[in-house]
C-alpha cells in the first residue's frame, strides 16, 4: 500500500489585480505518496507554479489562498503558525526553481551560500558545515567540490549551478522536493543529467518529488504519477502508464499528440489551437471547451467534475461520466 505524504484538497488561490480578484488555481486536489515522483504538466499559465507556491506559502503579496487544506505529515499546513511553516519549509519541504543563476546570490561564493544554508537548518559548526557541503556537492555529482566551493555562481555553468541549488535543497534532508521546471533553462544533455540526478536522489533518499514541467518527454521519463493542469484546474490524473497509453481527457490527448516524433520529420507538428485563458476571462462550463475538438453542447454550459476512468485514474470531462457513456451506448 502507498503511504500518502502530502494531500492537497480543494485548493483555491486568487490574485488581486487592477481589474479585480481572480482565481489562478481553483479547487485543486493532489496527493503525493512517499518516495513518489508526481509530475504536474500543463501549458504556460495553467497554474502549476501558483499551486506549488501556495503549498509552500510563498505567494507574492497580491496572491491569497482562498480555500483548501494541505495535509502534510499529520498537519494542515494552512493552519500552522508562520514560524512553524518556515521551519517546515526549511526542514521537510524544499524547492528548486527554473533559473539556478537567478536563485544563487552573485556576490557570495557557492561554498559560503551552501554553508549558510546548512547552518540555518542544522546545528553545526562552520568547519562541520564545510565538510558536509563538500559531501553534498559530491552527492549531486560535482567532481571537484573544493574548487566549486570557492567559485562564484557566474564562474560556473547553468547545469553546475542547478546541481548546487539541488545540494542546497538537500541540505535539510527534505521529505518532499518541489522542482519547478528545474531543467528548462539548461541545454538538452545537461537537462538529462539533472533529471537522472533527481531520480537517483529520490531512490537513495526516499524523498518524494513534485516535478513541474510543460514537457511531456520529461513526464514520460520521470513520473510515477501525473496530474494534468489546465486553467487552474486538474483535468486528468493517474499513473504515468495509463495516462500515456490511454488518455481520457481531450486536453491530455492533445498534449500527447503534440509530442514531436523522430519519424515524422517532414510532417507538420500537431498543436492544440488557441491558448490558455487568462484568469479574468475563464470560459463558462468546462474551461477547455472553447479549444476542445470533442466539445458537446453541455460542455460550454456546465463544468464537469472529476470522474473515475479506471485503474485509479480520473478525468474532468463529460465524456468520462458513466451517464454519458450509457447515453452513447443507448
Ligand atoms: N502575481 C500574479 N498576479 C496576477 N496573476 C498571476 C500572478 N501570478 C500568476 N498569475 C496568473 O495565474 C495563472 C497561473 O500562472 P502560473 O504561473 O501558475 O502558470 P504556470 O502553469 O506555472 O505557467 P508556466 O508554464 O509559464 O510557468 C496565469 O494566468 C498567470 O497569469
Ligand atoms: Mg510556472
Automatic annotation (TrEMBL):
Superkingdom of this protein's organism: Bacteria
Print the keywords alphabetically. Answer: ATP-binding, Cell membrane, Membrane, Nucleotide-binding, Transport
In the record, the note on similarity to other proteins reads: Belongs to the ABC transporter superfamily.
User: What topology does it adopt in the membrane?
Assistant: Peripheral membrane protein
The GO terms this record gives for MF are:
ATP binding
- Identification of the protein by name: ABC transporter ATP-binding protein
Compartment annotation? Cell membrane
SUPFAM superfamilies, sorted: P-loop containing nucleoside triphosphate hydrolases
Q: What is its main location?
A: membrane
Phylogenetic classification of the source organism: Bacteria, Bacillati, Bacillota, Bacilli, Bacillales
Segments traversing the membrane? none
Q: Which residue numbers delimit the ABC transporter domain?
A: 6-256
Amino acid at each position: 500500500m502507498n503511504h500518502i505524504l502530502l494531500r492537497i484538497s480543494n485548493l483555491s488561490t486568487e490574485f488581486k489585480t487592477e481589474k479585480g480578484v481572480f482565481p489562478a488555481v481553483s479547487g485543486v486536489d493532489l496527493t503525493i505518496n512517499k518516495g513518489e515522483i508526481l509530475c504536474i504538466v500543463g501549458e504556460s499559465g495553467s497554474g502549476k507554479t501558483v499551486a506549488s507556491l501556495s503549498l509552500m506559502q510563498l505567494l507574492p503579496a497580491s496572491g491569497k489562498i482562498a480555500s483548501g487544506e494541505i495535509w502534510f505529515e499529520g498537519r494542515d499546513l494552512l493552519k500552522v503558525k508562520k514560524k512553524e511553516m518556515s521551519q517546515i519549509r526549511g526542514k521537510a519541504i524544499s524547492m528548486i526553481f527554473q533559473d539556478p543563476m537567478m536563485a544563487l546570490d552573485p556576490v557570495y561564493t557557492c561554498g559560503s551560500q551552501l554553508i549558510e544554508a546548512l547552518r540555518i537548518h542544522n546545528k553545526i559548526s562552520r568547519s562541520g558545515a564545510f565538510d558536509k557541503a563538500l559531501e553534498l556537492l559530491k552527492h549531486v555529482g560535482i567532481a571537484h567540490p573544493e574548487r566549486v566551493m570557492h567559485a562564484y555562481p557566474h564562474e560556473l555553468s547553468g547545469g553546475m549551478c542547478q546541481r548546487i541549488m539541488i545540494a542546497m535543497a538537500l541540505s535539510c534532508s527534505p521529505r518532499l522536493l518541489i522542482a519547478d521546471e528545474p531543467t528548462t533553462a539548461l541545454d538538452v544533455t545537461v537537462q538529462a543529467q539533472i533529471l537522472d540526478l533527481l531520480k537517483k536522489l529520490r531512490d537513495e533518499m526516499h524523498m518524494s518529488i513534485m516535478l513541474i514541467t510543460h514537457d511531456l518527454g520529461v513526464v514520460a521519463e520521470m513520473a510515477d504519477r501525473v496530474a494534468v493542469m489546465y486553467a487552474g484546474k486538474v483535468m486528468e490524473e493517474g499513473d504515468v502508464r495509463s495516462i500515456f497509453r490511454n488518455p481520457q481527457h481531450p486536453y491530455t490527448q492533445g498534449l500527447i499528440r503534440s509530442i514531436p516524433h523522430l519519424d515524422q520529420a517532414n510532417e507538420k507538428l500537431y498543436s492544440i489551437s488557441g491558448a490558455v485563458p487568462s484568469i479574468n476571462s475563464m470560459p463558462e462550463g468546462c474551461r477547455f471547451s472553447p479549444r476542445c475538438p470533442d466539445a458537446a453542447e453541455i460542455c460550454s454550459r456546465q463544468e464537469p467534475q472529476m470522474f473515475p476512468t479506471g485503474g485509479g485514474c480520473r478525468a474532468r470531462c463529460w465524456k468520462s461520466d458513466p451517464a454519458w457513456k450509457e447515453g452513447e451506448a443507448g
